[in-house]
Amino acid sequence: MGLRERSRDHRTSDAAAASFAAGEVPHGTTVVAVTIQDGVILAGDRRATAGNLISHRTMRKVFPGDRWSGVAIAGAAGPAIEMVKLFQLQLEHYEKVEGKALSLEGKANQLSIMVRGNLGAAMQGMAVVPLFCGYDRGRAVGRLFEYDVTGGRYEESHYAASGSGSLHAGTVIKLGFKTDMTREEGIDLCISALFQAADQDSATGGPDLVRGIYPIIASITSDGYTEVEESEIAERFGAMVDDLQTATAAPQGGRA
Fold first, then answer.
1. What is the pLDDT of residues 139-161, one digit of tens each?
2. Catalytic-labelled residue, pool 29, 35, 49, 204
3. Which of 29, 64, 84, 141 could anchor a disulfide with 225, C-beta 3.0 to 4.6 Å?
């Protein structure tokens, strides 16, 4: 490592240390979910912030719960990731002990208990507000749930958003949502929602073409939890940007 790299790393670590000393811990930001024909699309940007510092550019915010469910996290990064790991372990343990998977409703309730257990930390500024989605094999539909910091669990019919950019992302989804969307339409809508949220909210990370960083997006259908390939996400982002540039291009020519 050269002198320039070491100096830059020291500046970054010093800034991070100063931020943490001031009581600011890394927070993950915007995550969204929409229902589609055969399940749910779950997506999250990659940026984590500590105050006005970008603490991580490649944070993972979308995780499988088990084969048929997924969790997207927003809030204090450390407690959120720890919560997801424990949640995954509990679902796996239940299935091994009982010989069958917990119902989707039961999984949503279990996560609610865990969020409520974090209430003390939330009151100190380390809130965790996840989204939980899954494919209900009994009903043969995708379902999604959102939470508040007290552990309140609310099932949403069509879409949900959480995190600092949720207002902007939720508005984009509300305007673009339609029932019985295909997988591709759901992915495109989530991509658009995260892109517009990043345009308005500094804590939400947009696509980073230089570093090759894109949101993590997963589908949960009758085939189970599947993450969308990064190459497909990059291609769809490119197509969306091309469309935006075409739509906003100034008209050529003028009055004779």
1. 999 999 999 999 999 999 999 99
2. 29
3. 64
| Average pLDDT value for the chain | 89
Q: Which amino acid is at 15?
A: A
Looking at residue 183, its amino acid is R
Closest to 28 measured CA to CA, from 155, 143, 130: 130
Radius of gyration of the chain (CA): 19
Domain membership of residue 212 (yes or no) is: yes
Task: Write phi, then psi, for 31 (nearest 5 degrees).
Answer: -135, 150
Q: What's the CATH code of the domain at 66?
A: 3.60.20.10
Per the structure, how many domains does the chain have? 1
Determine what percent of the chain is predicted with pLDDT higher than 90: 80
Tell me if residue 171 is catalytic: no
pLDDT digit string, tens, across residues 57-75: 999 999 999 999 999 999 9
Q: How many CB atoms lie within 10 A of CB 238?
A: 12
